[in-house]
Design brief:
The protein is mainly alpha-helical. The chain is built from three helices and no strands. It has two domains: 32 residues; 58 residues.
Length: 91
C-alpha cells in the first residue's frame, strides 16, 4: 500500500522547505539582525556619547557646575529613556 501525494502538495512542500532553508541560512550568515545585538550597540553608543560629554565638561574645570550638570543631565535621561532602569551618579 503506497501513499499517494498529489503533485500540488509536493510542489507546495518543496517551496516551503526552500523558503525555510533560505531563512535559516540567512540567519546563520548573520543577515538577519538580532534584537539583542542592536540593543547592545545602542547602549555602547549612548555610553560613549555620555563619556565624551562628561569628559569635555570635566576639562572646563568648575567642579560645582560639573556635578550639578551631570545630575541634571542624568535625571533628564532617566526620565526620557524607557529602557533605562537605574541611573546612578556618585561624585
Amino acid at each position: 500500500m503506497k501513499l499517494q501525494i498529489s503533485p500540488t502538495l509536493r510542489v507546495s512542500f518543496g517551496l516551503l522547505m526552500i523558503t525555510l532553508s533560505i531563512v535559516f541560512a540567512s540567519d546563520w550568515l548573520g543577515l538577519i539582525p538580532r534584537e539583542e545585538t542592536l540593543r547592545m550597540e545602542n547602549r555602547k553608543h549612548f555610553s560613549e556619547t555620555v563619556a565624551v560629554l562628561f569628559s569635555s565638561m570635566a576639562q572646563k574645570g568648575d567642579s560645582l557646575h560639573f556635578n550639578s550638570s551631570i545630575k541634571h543631565y542624568l535625571r533628564n535621561v532617566g526620565k526620557s529613556d524607557a529602557e533605562l532602569i537605574v541611573v546612578v551618579y556618585t561624585p
